[in-house]
Amino acid sequence: MYGMASNSNTNEKTKRRSSQMANNILGISWKDRHKVTNEEYEEVRVRTGQYSLDDILSERRLRWLEHVMRMDHQLIPRQA
Length: 80
Hints:
- 65% of the residues lie in helices and 0% in strands.
- It is an all-alpha fold.
- The chain has one domain (8-79).
- The protein is elongated, with a radius of gyration of 17 Å.
- 0% of the residues are buried.
């Protein structure tokens, strides 16, 4: 399905963007990034109740798939 392909390059871009947004939210500058580990990011994310970008994208893709599956068979998204 269009837009559903997932390869390592896309996953890396998603992880990088997620880290950039986390840095922005947590107020971490580029000078401090070497001090913060991935485990600390994960701990803060869980503690604050934030969803990872991968989780959000997966949920939205599933919602779209459910929507398409309920569509009439003659509609273009359902035919794809």
